[in-house]
Write a structure and sequence with these properties.
Multidrug-efflux Transporter Regulator, Chain: A, Domain 2; disordered N terminus; alpha/beta; binds cobalamin; Rossmann fold; 9 strands; 12% strand; 47% helix
Length: 291
């Protein structure tokens, strides 16, 4: 295959095997570079096509960058650098195996919370922004979400903590009418890793069910509610009021994209807010110490 350059020069695209030969690595290594976004490539006519100029960035061991010679970036997010951006490329193209490889790299370099907070969460926020401004279709966004849910499902068991547990239970739920499940799962997993017993009811929890669940738990330390869309904020306020009534003295925290800051959470009656799952753990820890 001939790749056209803006300067009207033509460059012969390399196969995976040829690229492996140039780089002095196994062809499976080149394949992994492609699937994890380190090496831009186009899949066409049943095989990968690699621009020879892109090999340099792998040879230098650097992260992929847009070509310095001014030729257009043809391969989208594969040129981006961070784990989140590379994950974005895999999720929006429906590449489940590649997405898992990126998750695995972050897992090995840091841990499961790095995959959540450093890779998946920023990546999902970008996906939301791209959907909102029309760069992604609803189908693209749904497909990406399914893959993200799969990764979250695989990582979940890694958050279990052996040994001493912290006293008390934490009840977590998404506000009624809010379908966003991943934030509730992430907050839940990080709390479990911190030694808390979490009762996680998932997304879209009917108000009466939520209140009944809170009322039935003797050891409740705190309640966390997640509100993903602005349209659920009023319901979030009702849920906070219902929970305060059913469990006076048990703090109810609120978070999620519909709640931009502490003031917004307090405005609907919540006792606290955090920007992310790590902040949520901090809030719950403070309840544990009576602060
Ligand atoms: C995936 C997704 C969906 C999926 C959810 C599938 C599923 N099973 O979860 C689907 C396709 C169903 C969906 C639907 C909709 N979505 Co949507 N969705 C998203 C997306 C892309 C990712 C959500 C996610 O998982 N984020 C990753 C998590 C980790 O980030 P997070 O939510 O911010 O959570 C972190 C913190 O907020 C915090 N946190 C969260 N909860 C809590 C709770 C407590 C107590 C604390 C302390 C902290 C805390 O910790 C979390 C981890 O760090 C977001 C984009 C985004 N910005 O997140 C849009 C987004 C949330 N969706 C949005 C919208 C508008 C919708 C729809 C209304 C679209 C529509 N017109 O139909 C519908 C909802 C319909 C309904 N019934 O109401 C908007 C909401 C904007 C707003 N302020 O209202 C967003 C922000 C996209 C955007 N940029 O506009 N969506």
């Amino acid at each position: 295959m001939i790749l056209m350059e803006p300067a009207e020069a033509t460059v012969e695209a390399l196969t995976i095997e040829q690229a492996a030969h140039h780089l002095g690595v196994h062809y499976m290594t080149v394949y992994r570079y492609i699937r994890t976004g380190r090496l831009p490539a186009e899949y066409r006519d049943g095989r990968w096509h690699i621009h020879p100029g892109d090999l340099a960035q792998v040879q230098k061991g650097g992260r992929p960058r847009p070509p310095a010679d001014g030729r257009p970036v043809r391969r989208g997010p594969a040129t981006a650098g961070s784990g989140a951006e590379r994950m974005l490329g895999r999720l929006v193209t429906g590449d489940s195996a590649g997405a898992w490889l990126i998750a695995e790299q972050s897992l090995l370099a840091g841990g499961p919370d790095d995959v959540y907070l450093g890779v998946l969460a920023p990546c999902l926020r970008t996906i939301g922004d791209m959907w909102a401004d029309g760069r992604l279709t609803v189908a693209d966004e749904h497909r990406a979400t399914v893959l993200a849910l799969g990764i979250v499902g695989r990582l979940g068991p890694l958050f279990g903590r052996r040994g001493r547990r912290r006293p008390g239970q934490v009840l977590l739920a998404g506000v009624e009418g809010d379908p966003h499940a991943i934030p509730v799962i992430m907050v839940s997993d990080l709390l479990r890793a911190d030694g808390y017993e979490v009762v996680q009811l998932g997304a879209d929890v009917p108000l009466d069910t939520l209140v009944a669940s809170a009322a039935s738990r003797a050891q409740l330390l705190a309640i966390g509610l997640s509100a993903g869309t602005t349209r659920t904020l009023e319901r979030a306020g009702k849920a906070v009021a219902g929970l305060h009534h059913a469990r006076p003295g048990v703090p109810v925290f609120l978070g999620g994209p519909a709640v931009p800051d502490e003031a917004a959470a307090r405005a609907v009656g919540a006792d606290g807010w955090a920007a992310d799952a790590a902040g949520a753990v901090e809030l719950i820890r403070q309840c544990g110490t009576g602060r």
